[in-house]
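chain below, 92 aa
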Amino acid sequence: MSFWVNVIDKLPEDNQRVLAFIPQNKVFKPGMDLKFNIREVVVLHFRENFYAENLDKIKEHGLHFWSGEGNSNHFFKDVTHWRAIPDGPKKM
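prediction:
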């Protein structure tokens, strides 16, 4: 059973913090010119109707947006799948 949800099938709730899958996502290393790691799973917040009042942005990037933590924002089309962030371990 896969816990990953295709963005075509369902979207997260507005402002929901999720794990997002971005194929071949490059994360550039700080202070190192053009050196990067591939990190396909990142934490993002789904922003529903983010560009609702900007038709040019909707045409170019889509209606929705993914905001990152730090410097990792992504256009809607970048993310193919998402999943809820699991709860951490419970204290005993």
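Helices lie at 55-61. The first strand starts at residue 5 and ends at 6.
thats it, cya
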